[in-house]
């Protein structure tokens, strides 16, 4: 059986969620960002499952989960994560969040008071200002983007996601990343989630970072052009006693650029004593 397999479905209050569970040990939850899916964790799941019971899922509106026509924003994703944790009956999991997944993990912890054993943030969207000019343009013209010819949309999405990596994106990675965003349903979903990206969802939690006590590791691609590494260092200053490490030769999509290095940092921090890193 392939370690990466979304075999299960959970019907959340906001749409159905496809998820998988792999391995044995303490619970560890992987939360992806945008415009990614749990597909982009596939290099890490086998290694992490040697030490942990790994839970991975596609956010509502992403991947193989329901591409709901309503709210798929950061305003609901933390509620979905909370419902999943209750469905899985796990308390104080280790949570690893990338990009919007990091935002979702932070919002779940800070707004819903969900306790974590440890938290790992990988190039998270956490500090204002954020949101590219492309995001702003889609926000103003979402309907027009939903109506462009499919081949133009595919070319745009391909160019967009490849820009997140420092190394050239392999063809199989590109295919697996963009496939959920193709055809009519996927195309509409792609522009929907961008149009709903709103900085107020991080403005709401930024003042709360100083109150965090959960052991936190921040990992950042040294060559991230989407969210420069300086934001990571600033976030480390905002979260008391957080650890910070940069990952060389990696852009925003660290788990595709340098999966072995990322896995090494994760296992060292999560398996060994938290002060060893």
Automatic annotation (TrEMBL):
Pfam families assigned to the protein according to its UniProt record, in alphabetical order: Abhydrolase_6
Ranges where the AB hydrolase-1 domain occurs: 28-261
Record lineage: Bacteria, Bacillati, Bacillota, Bacilli, Bacillales
Key word Ribonucleoprotein present: no
Natural source organism: Bacillus daqingensis
Protein's UniProt name: Alpha/beta fold hydrolase
Keyword Hydrolase recorded: yes
Taxonomy, superkingdom: Bacteria
Key words, A-Z: Hydrolase
A GO term, aspect molecular function: hydrolase activity
């Amino acid at each position: 059986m392939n370690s990466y397999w979304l075999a299960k479905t959970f019907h959340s209050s906001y749409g159905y969620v496809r998820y998988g569970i792999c391995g044995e040990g303490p619970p560890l939850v992987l939360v992806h960002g945008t415009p990614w899916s749990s597909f982009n964790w596939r290099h890490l799941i086998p290694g992490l499952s040697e030490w942990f019971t790994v839970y991975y899922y596609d956010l509502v509106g992403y991947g193989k989960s329901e591409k709901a026509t309503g709210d798929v924003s950061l305003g609901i994703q933390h509620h979905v994560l909370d419902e999943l944790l209750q469905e899985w009956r796990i308390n104080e999991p280790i949570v690893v969040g990338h990009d919007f997944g990091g935002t979702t993990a932070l919002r779940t912890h800070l707004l819903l008071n969900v306790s974590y054993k440890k938290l790992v943030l990988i190039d998270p969207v956490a500090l204002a200002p954020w949101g590219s000019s492309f995001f702003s343009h889609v926000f103003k013209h979402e309907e027009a983007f939903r109506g462009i010819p499919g081949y133009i949309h595919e070319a745009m999405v391909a160019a967009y996601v490849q820009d997140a990596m420092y190394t050239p994106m392999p063809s199989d990675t590109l295919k697996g990343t963009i496939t959920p965003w193709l055809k009519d349903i996927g195309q509409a979903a792609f522009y929907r989630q961008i149009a709903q990206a709103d900085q107020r969802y991080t403005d709401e939690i930024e003042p709360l970072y100083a109150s965090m006590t959960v052991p936190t590791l921040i990992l950042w691609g040294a060559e991230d052009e989407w969210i420069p590494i300086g934001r990571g260092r600033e976030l480390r200053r905002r979260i008391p006693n957080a650890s910070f490490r940069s990952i060389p030769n990696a852009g925003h999509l660290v788990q595709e650029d340098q999966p072995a290095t990322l896995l090494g940092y994760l296992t060292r921090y999560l398996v060994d004593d938290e002060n060893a890193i």
